[in-house]
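## retry 2 of 3
previous attempt timed out at serialization; input unchanged, resubmitting
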Amino acid sequence: MPERFVDRTLRAFSDDIASDAPVPGGGSASAFAGAMGAALAAMVARIASKKSNDEALRDYIAEMDNLRADFLRLVDDDSAAYAGVAEAMKLPRNTDAEKDARTERVQSALLAASRVPLELARTSRRLLDACERGLAKAPPAAVSDIGVGAILSEAALEGAAMNVMINLASVKDRGQVKALSEDLDRAIEGAAAQRKRITDFVESRIAR
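## retry succeeded, writing output
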């Protein structure tokens, strides 16, 4: 079984992204950004929990660890989904039957490759929501870390959105395009303003 990208070293993973291979690409990179954001939010909560027995903090830590696991899964899920598109594109198209079969495979693969980054977009928005909730409990010395977590969650969300859009651009089923686009719009709506609220709060706490 091939090695999972998430099991590679950071240097090796960055080398994989820098190569001319179709995967991993922007979707996997976005998912890893989300994983780092969730890790930072968990770290801030763990620091806060050293001086508190608040059960809500323990629940928050578990939530962030689960989100991080979701992001790490999506690193490889995104690459696997787009690899399906790349394989479908290689199918022969010498006869009408082959062309029809190839078109069907490509369209199916493009839909799958759109749904994975859509899941990433939803997961990223959940992280952004969690970062905003985590501000109240963030220790002064670690408040910047949850701000970075929010920035990374927005980057993951925006990166995921780009990957959904570029794959949907080649999907012929307009009903699927409309449904998935509307789902994406719901994930994105208000995210930039939410991130700004978070970073404005963080900057107010660390202003020189």
